[in-house]
Amino acid sequence: MQSTNKLYENNVVAPVLVVFGITGDLAKKKLLPAIYRLLKDDLLPKETVILGLTRQNLGSKDILTNTEICINEADGICDPKAMKKLKDRLQILQIDISKLGEFKKLKTALDQIDKNSGQKLNHLYYMSVPPNVTENIVGELGKHGLNKDNSRLLIEKPFGFDYKSAKKLIKVISKFFNEDQIFRIDHYLAKETVQNILIFRYNNIFEKVWNGANISEVIITANEKLDIEGRKVFYEETGALRDLIQSHLLMLLAVTILDLPDKMTSQKLHRAKLKALESISPVTHSDIKKNAIRGQYEGYREEVENPNSHIDTFAALKLNVSTKRWHKVNFILRTGKALNEKLTTVEVKFKPNQEGLQNNNLIFRIQPHEGIKLTMLIKEPGFNKKTKAADLDLNYRDEKIDVTHPDAYERVLVDAVKGDHSLFSTSSEILASWKIVEDVVQEWTSNSNNLLYYKKGSSGPDVTSLIE
Length: 468
Ligand code: BG6
Prior knowledge:
Blueprint: H1 4-7, E1 15-20, H2 25-40, E2 49-54, H3 60-75, H4 80-89, E3 90-94, H5 103-117, E4 122-127, H6 131-143, E5 151-155, H7 163-176, E6 182-184, H8 192-201, H9 204-207, E7 215-223, H10 232-257, H11 266-278, H12 288-291, E8 292-297, H13 300-303, E9 314-319, E10 330-336, E11 343-350, E12 361-367, E13 371-379, E14 387-395, H14 408-418, H15 427-446, E15 451-454
Parallel strand pairs: 1-2, 1-4, 2-3, 4-5, 5-6, 7-10, 8-15
Antiparallel strand pairs: 7-11, 8-9, 9-10, 11-12, 12-13, 13-14
């Protein structure tokens, strides 16, 4: 097991993690459980404080009841000692951020925390709020001098609602925070198995065939069993395309197609990722009918109490990459809510050999049952000459490695405390990814053409027309 000593440089300054949106779904399900696990394994600097902001009159006990339920659901157990650590570190500040002058309260609370700990802690502002609210908060932080060098901004997706709003958000934030202080979260990049796609690609035997001469199609799937889970307002403003494709799935695609840098430094990785994203041809208005499919699960409209909603709870896109390396390869991205399974995979289909025999198939299973499966052609045992497909199957969790498998949010927090930008998105990457889906976002927002309906618990709309 790793300890704090090994994770951080000696001079790392402990953070005050200021959470905007502490009562939200994300804090309850992902952020607070991740902090709990880090505290359990002693992986946060000793003096770390969590400061949750809410306009409601709530105490840490109220906040943590729901978190405990989520930890129990996810881990099957909730360690009372670690829970106590979390409770001891969590402070709640009642504040109405929409009211002028309220940020003074935050400044006073932060000064007090510094005073109690006898040092100037790093302020890590965690924005788990809609993009327009982020804009206001950032402005207020700036006005109250809370944007100084020892502060960092951690911003949840979606970063903007479309290209234009993302650009505006970038501009507003850059007035108060410089790029080094900003950490734009895409938690898929922080998943162990996504990082492993890159490491896998450094195996020379695969990198040599990693191109359109050998690969015919790449299918990236993120199916979810869960429906929108009551997140009515958020989902009505977002939809599957914005929620998963513009962010998580395009990042997965970038990691799959980028030109591997000679070294995996943050700067080189970002350069390669941006180049990859910029090489993906945007789906234009005229391509939408042919290359994009959207669906909505039955019962969604009743759930959000909007009988006319044409929000997509399922989205699939066919994309092309304009480089020589990926010439004529089909890239399919698909995701949906309320489907029959939770499954995230990147499937790389190789072309058949000269005799047209069995295709090799390589599947990165991002979740669950993280692993890599390579389908190969082998001789069927016996006196005949028959061949058959067999799998080389690596189960990531079976590997006897003496460390825990950090959850993506644990990784996000540790890297933000360290100040390591490698697994976060730059503003240029965000803009490049919005550009790819911009026309589809516009068209799907403006009309309900070709919206397909599917049953909850089914496999969703048929996307075979996209797949070769
Ligand atoms: C979030 C989306 O970014 O990712 C959610 O907003 C989605 O709608 C979630 O459910 C999926 O994350 P994971 O890690 O459970 O696959």
